[in-house]
Amino acid sequence: MKITWTDRNGNEITGRIDAALWPYVKALGVDKAARFFIRFGGSYIYIGRKRANGTSEVAAVLGPVASQQLIESGVGPGSVRVPLANGFPARYLRSRGRTVNQICRAVRCTDVQVRGLLKADHARRDASIRMEAKRRETYLADAELLASLPQALTQPQGPQP
């Protein structure tokens, strides 16, 4: 799924969002969802059934209305494991003008991982396709080498059953 938001200069940014994150982004909006994933990503949270439940950590950070919106979108109520989702907050923070080092600290990743997360979707896909092609070439070269060996080397040794 794709979503569009504006950066600090007013330019529209379009990015792919994993399907597991979509209910959160739909319920909370882009800004609150990014804050939510930075704060709770990778952990269990409890979302209370009552809208006025201001004692939960989710309600304390995002407000009781956000808790209710999560329940209405199909996330919760009860204990829920929040996806780690480092890619979405990293891209969001970059669109807000944050540096790679600031993003590293926010999403708890190395600078190399953050640079990888910030690559365009098509660049990541092309790199994956190139790696797969290289792997296939290696397998083909190994198969050709085996085919060129004498039969005595490629046949199993010892008595045949």
Order of helices and strands: EEHHEHHEHHHHH
- The total of helices stands at 9
Query: What is the number of beta strands?
Result: 4
**How is the biggest beta sheet arranged?**
2 strands, antiparallel
Rg from alpha-carbon coordinates: 24 Å
Verbal overview:
With 161 residues, the protein is mainly alpha-helical. It has two domains: 2-118, no CATH class; 121-148. It has nine helices and four strands; from the N terminus they run E-E-H-H-E-H-H-E-H-H-H-H-H. The chain has helices spanning 22-28, 30-40, 57-62, 64-72, 87-95, 100-107, 111-118, 121-148, 151-154; strands at 2-6, 12-16, 44-47, 78-81. It has a two-stranded antiparallel ribbon. A two-stranded antiparallel sheet has the order 3-4. Helix 1 (22-28) crosses helix 2, helix 1 packs across helix 4 and helix 6 packs across helix 7 (111-118). The chain is elongated, with a radius of gyration of 24 Å. The mean pLDDT is 80.
List the helices and strands and how they pair.
Elements lengths: L1 E5 L5 E5 L5 H7 L1 H11 L3 E4 L9 H6 L1 H9 L5 E4 L5 H9 L4 H8 L3 H8 L2 H28 L2 H4 L7
Antiparallel strand pairs: 1-2, 3-4
Helix pairs in contact: 1-2, 1-4, 2-5, 5-6, 6-7
